[in-house]
Amino acid sequence: MMKNNSYARVAYKILQYLNACYEHGEFPNPDNINATRLGITFQQFYQTLKMLTEDGNIKGVIFNDTIPPDQSTLNHPRDWRITSKGIEYLEENSLMKKAYKVVKEARDWLPLH
User: Fold this and answer.
1) 30 preceded by cis ω (within 30°)?
2) Residue 83: closest CA among 34, 35, 21
3) How far is CA 13 from the centre of its chain?
């Protein structure tokens, strides 16, 4: 399992993959986008996709909710796609990471005690 399996990290990885598919004109491959590949449980994968869909970052995911939840299923990833809002999320997140890295590097060499 992934050490840091926070929503932000998992969501970012899913969006990165779907964006790469978009940029290369490819369909998402179930071997490349699944819970095992991300190092998380199916339930977390399912819930993350649901949140990304509800937030408008991705489209095309069909959720077949069942009781018990661990028997819920998803449609084939071929239909999944990132939205312009999802691309914006990636760009903003990337800028925040760069800004954090610059601040961290500055803190490392500035005499701030």
Assistant:
1) no
2) 21
3) 4
What is the gyration radius of the CA atoms in the chain, in angstroms? Answer: 17
Question: pLDDT for 59-84, tens place per residue?
Answer: 999 999 888 877 889 999 999 999 99
Q: CA 19 to CA 78: how far, in whole Å?
A: 13
DSSP state of 70: G
pTM metric for this prediction? 0.80
Distance CA 48, CA 7 (A): 7
Contacts of 42 (CB under 8 A, 6+ apart): 35, 70
- The Cα–Cα gap between 103 and 108 comes to 9
Burial class of 80 by CB neighbour count within 10 A (0 to 12, 13 to 18, 19+): buried
